[in-house]
Write a structure and sequence with these properties.
There is one protein chain. By secondary structure, this protein is of the alpha/beta class. It folds into two domains: 158 residues, Quinone Oxidoreductase, Chain A, domain 1 (Alpha-Beta Complex); 128 residues, NAD(P)-binding Rossmann-like Domain (Rossmann fold, 3-Layer(aba) Sandwich). The protein contains nine helices and 15 strands. The strands form three sheets. Strands 3, 4, 5, 6, 7, 14 and 15 form a seven-stranded mixed beta sheet that branches. Helix 2 packs across helix 3 and helix 2 packs across helix 8. The structure holds NADPH dihydro-nicotinamide-adenine-dinucleotide phosphate (NDP). NADPH dihydro-nicotinamide-adenine-dinucleotide phosphate binds next to helix 1, helix 2, helix 3 and helix 9.
């Protein structure tokens, strides 16, 4: 089968199309013929060496496709089932092995590109508004990179919970997409001379006391402005570092900021059990089927072009979700 391999840590150019042996399912596992593999920021962290990976490394952890073989002991997943997954290592490939109890059935009415798009980013948006800080009606929240994969979904889910959402974006086209997702106010943070001083002012022009929660996946460049945008007892949910990782900081800043909270959550802890994985996925699929949640696939690439997808993502050129069309 064909797969993408990173032979060593490096830039997008290390991603190479190779032939690998077709996998066999072990006990409790299934083999899925991949229709779409999702591209995520974390794939770039592993490719570049920011996060540890063993090389040669086949990137990707999520996707959607059709089960083509089941291993011993698998009873509730069958050949021909349409499934999606979020923790199937090596998903940039024509076939992937996934533990049967980590597959999510894709319901009728949800296409496989949408299902792939909803796994890592959708489940993340879900736990952020549902668990990291349960967003309530009448709250004000700030979402960075509002036209990104997580950002567009997070905005819609927070609005559905009755919140007023302020977002940041870097282009006018992204601003328009963010407004369409339900943002009340959109700040062009690329146009601010002093982000740390001016972004909190822009936020307070909309929410005078500051926001109840900031969802920050940008990290290094936005962290200080995020803290300064909170109201007393507000929470900064730092969930990523698209601009770089946040350096260590002095806990006393939480005291002087007004009894603030900071959390650094990760998806794995929020879908660790099968019931929690299925609950979150079911709620997302249900919202899609109702038309209440729009999933924007902003870029579809051939498997061989995975490096170009990484380059565009890291260059801030993308909106919504990027997928690799593997088997279609
Ligand atoms: P996005 O589609 O949001 O792409 C990243 C966006 O970040 C860019 O489009 C850009 O938007 C913004 N950005 C700001 N500064 C930079 C920079 N220096 N370089 C690159 N991008 C920058 O990506 P995802 O939706 O896939 O992921 C968003 C964040 O969420 C990432 O940090 C990712 O690691 C994190 N994440 C965390 C998870 C968790 O459980 N903790 C799970 C899933 C994702 P703009 O041009 O508008 O500034």
């Amino acid at each position: 089968m064909r797969a993408i391999e990173a032979v060593r840590a490096g830039g997008p150019e290390v991603l190479t199309l190779v032939e690998r042996p077709a996998p066999d399912p072990g006990a409790g596992e299934v083999v899925v013929d991949v229709a779409f593999a999702g591209v995520n920021f974390i794939d770039t962290y592993r490719r570049s060496g920011v996060y540890p990976a063993h090389f040669p490394h086949v990137p990707g952890s999520e996707g959607a496709g059709v089960v083509s073989a089941v291993g011993p002991g698998v009873t509730d997943v069958a050949v021909g089932d349409r499934v999606a997954w979020v923790d199937g290592p090596g998903s940039y490939a024509e076939q992937v092995v996934v533990a049967a109890d980590r597959t999510v059935p894709v319901p009728d009415g949800v296409d496989l590109a949408t299902a792939a798009a909803l796994m890592l980013q959708g489940l993340t948006a879900h736990y952020l508004v549902d668990s990291s800080h349960p967003v309530g009606p009448g709250e004000d929240v700030l979402v960075h990179a509002g036209a990104g994969g997580v950002g567009l979904l997070l905005t819609q889910l927070a609005v559905a919970r009755g919140a007023r959402v302020i977002t940041t974006v870097s282009t006018e086209a992204k601003a328009e997409l963010s407004r369409e997702a339900g943002a009340t106010a959109v700040v062009r943070y690329d146009q601010l001379d002093d982000l740390t001083a001016q972004l909190p002012e822009a936020v307070r022009a909309v929410a005078p006391e500051g926001v109840h929660a900031v969802y920050d996946g940008v990290g290094r460049t936005t962290f200080d402005a995020s803290l300064a945008s909170l109201r007393p007892r507000g929470i900064l949910v730092l969930f990523g570092g698209a601009s770089g990782q946040v350096p260590p900081f002095d806990l006393q800043r939480l005291n002087s900021g007004g009894s603030l909270f900071v959390t650094r959550p990760t998806l794995g802890d929020h879908v660790a059990t099968r019931p929690e994985l299925l609950r979150r996925a079911d709620e997302l699929f249900h919202a899609v089927r109702l038309g209440a949640l729009k999933v924007r696939v902003g870029g579809t690439y051939a498997l061989a072009d995975a490096g170009e997808a990484h380059r565009a993502l890291e260059a801030r050129e993308t909106t919504g979700k990027l997928v690799l069309e593997v088997g279609g």
